[in-house]
Write the structure tokens for this entry.
Amino acid sequence: MHSYASVVQQPPRSDAPADSLNFEQAIESLEAIVAQIEGGTLGLEASIARYEQGVALIARCKEILRVQEQRVEELNKRAAGLAESGAPGPAPV
């Protein structure tokens, strides 16, 4: 994780649309945006623009988490079905 000072000095590494970022990239960009806004050096318009980008990043993170939660639920259902049938479970990853 980055220190607060290093995040304030650096803009997010990616200006890519939020929907093209993975979870970790979105979180990193969101942390940088928060630091920039909290730093108080941005004007009103720039702060609002960064806030808007942050909202899009939050939506992206929520969507990624929703999809991954569904994957975990499906894996749990399969594992429960295998346990009930007496079949061996999935191989460890």
